[in-house]
Amino acid sequence: MGKSKQIGNHKSDKKKNIAKTWKTKRRTKDLDQIHSDMKPDTASKLLHQEVDYDVTGCAQHYCLHCARYFVDMRSLKEHFKTKQHKKRLKQLREEPYTQAEAERAAGMGSYIAPKAVEVKTQTVEEDMD
Ligand SMILES: [Zn+2]
Questions:
Q1: pTM above 0.70, yes or no
Q2: How far, in Å, from the CA of 11 to the mean position of ligand 1?
Q3: CATH number of the domain that 75 lies in?
Q4: pLDDT of residue 17
Q5: 108-117, Cβ contacts within 8 angstroms, sequence gap of 24 or more
Q6: How far is the CA of 63 from the centre of ligand 1 (A)?
Q7: Sign (positive/negative) of CA torsion 23, 71, 46, 33?
Q8: Is residue 127 part of a domain?
Q9: Averaged pLDDT in 10-residue chunks for the chain of 129 residues
C-alpha cells in the first residue's frame, strides 16, 4: 500500500489559462497615443462617437485617458473613481518626451523644465434628468 501520492492541491487543479497572458487584444493604448488623443478636437471626436454595436456600450461611454469603453454612464463614472483611472491621470500629467526637450537638456538653447500638464477627468454629460 504505502503512501498515497498527492497529485497537486485544489488550487492547482485547474489548468492556468495561458491564452489570457498572451492576448494582445485587450492591450490599451500607449501614453503618448493618449496624449495625442487628449487634444481637444481628437478628444471630442472620441467622446462623441457614432453608435457602434460591436463596441462595449455602443462606443458611447469612453474613458479618454484609459482608452476604454464602458457599458453605461454609471460604470464610466464608477471607473473614474477607481485606482486604475487615478493612476493613469497621474501618469498623463507628465508631458511626453519631445525632441525639443532633449535639445534643451543637451545645452542647445535654454533649458526649460517640462511643465506638468493638468489632467482632469473628462466631464460627463448628465443626460439622465
Ligand atoms: Zn479612465
A1: no
A2: 33
A3: 3.30.160
A4: 61
A5: 117/92, 117/93
A6: 5
A7: negative
A8: no
A9: 65 57 67 90 94 96 95 95 94 72 67 65 66
